[in-house]
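Help needed: design a sequence for this.
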């Protein structure tokens, strides 16, 4: 009866599992391995999530978190951030950004890119996207 109470109390305070005495070593190792498997990100989800500094960009869910706080971005802002952050330090020309983010059928000017960069900076701060004068933009932690 007291073992059942201990088990229930453990689950109520956040335990994921309960092991009763006497502990069987092989069963304990199997339980540990099962927990480790559950907590490992799959290769697919790892490809869709970038973690850089205090920034987490989840491509699959279209979510951005900065310091644990959700940052709301428009679709094109998100796509631009993901493009730049997927290769930190790489300079993207405006032409490369246009090709990767906007379809050929859409008329977009350089000012459109500048506006999206400005909005990213307003929402995330100045520490992530830098301008390379006369060339384009890059993602880096400043």
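Sure. Designed sequence:
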């Amino acid at each position: 009866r007291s073992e059942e109470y201990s088990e229930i109390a453990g689950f109520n305070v956040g335990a994921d599992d309960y092991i009763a005495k006497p502990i069987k070593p092989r069963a304990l190792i199997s339980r540990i391995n099962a927990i480790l498997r559950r907590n490992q990100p799959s290769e697919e989800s790892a490809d869709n999530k970038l973690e850089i500094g205090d920034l987490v960009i989840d491509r699959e869910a279209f979510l951005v978190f900065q310091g644990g706080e959700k940052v709301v971005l428009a679709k094109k802002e998100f796509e631009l951030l993901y493009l730049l952050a997927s290769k930190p330090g790489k300079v993207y020309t405006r032409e490369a950004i246009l090709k990767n983010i906007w379809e050929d059928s859409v008329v977009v000017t350089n000012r459109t890119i500048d506006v999206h960069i400005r909005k990213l900076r307003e929402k995330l701060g100045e520490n992530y996207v830098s301008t390379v004068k006369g060339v384009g933009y890059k993602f880096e932690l400043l």
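The two ends are 59 Å apart (CA to CA).
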